[in-house]
Structures are given as structure tokens and as C-alpha cells.
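Before going further, learn to read the protein records used in this course. Taken together, the C-alpha cells spell out the fold as the letters spell out the chain. A record is reproduced here so that you can trace the correspondence yourselves:

***
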Amino acid sequence: MDPYFFGVMLLSAGSFIHTKSDVPELRPDDEQVDTAWRWLSRAAFAAWLLMLVWGAVHLPLWEPAVAFVASLTANSFLVLRGPQRAWPALSVVCSLAGLGLSAWRVFG
């Protein structure tokens, strides 16, 4: 399967988790780690937008549309699960994996 779909879904999930982790219990204790996590999630969101645009230009339009719907579905699943203690780590893993898959798809 094309890494485009997984990359877009992971980027969306990584960014979304950060926006939903606003309570102090779900934030890292170290201010520098929290700042790094914030910048990584912003990079994931920007890459998510860029991948949707890239997909609209380089792929048939149904593929970015399906990736968009799939990313919203993944975010809905996270909302239904509710906040978890593992969310910061999951956000970092999703963001890094999504950035890697997206770079692999675009430049590979």
C-alpha cells in the first residue's frame, strides 16, 4: 500500500493529539521537552497540509480525498478513546513516522 495514506494519517494524529493534550497531567514536566513537542506537532500539521496539496497535484484527486477522510477518522477514534497518559509519546512517534513516510513518498 502507498505510504502516502499512512503518512497523512500519522501526521494528522500526531498533530491532533497535541491539541487535545491541554491538561497539565498529559504534558511533559520539562519545559524544553514540551516546547520540542509543540514544534514537532506544528511541523506535523504543516506537513499534513503540504501532503494533501502535494497529493492533489501529483496523484488522482480521490487519493488525497480518501487520505483526508481517513485522517479525520483516525482523529475521531482518538477522541472516542479519550485522553491517555501515553498520548505525548504516541504523538511524537506518529509525527516522526508520518514525517518519515511523507519524505519517503515525496523524495523516494
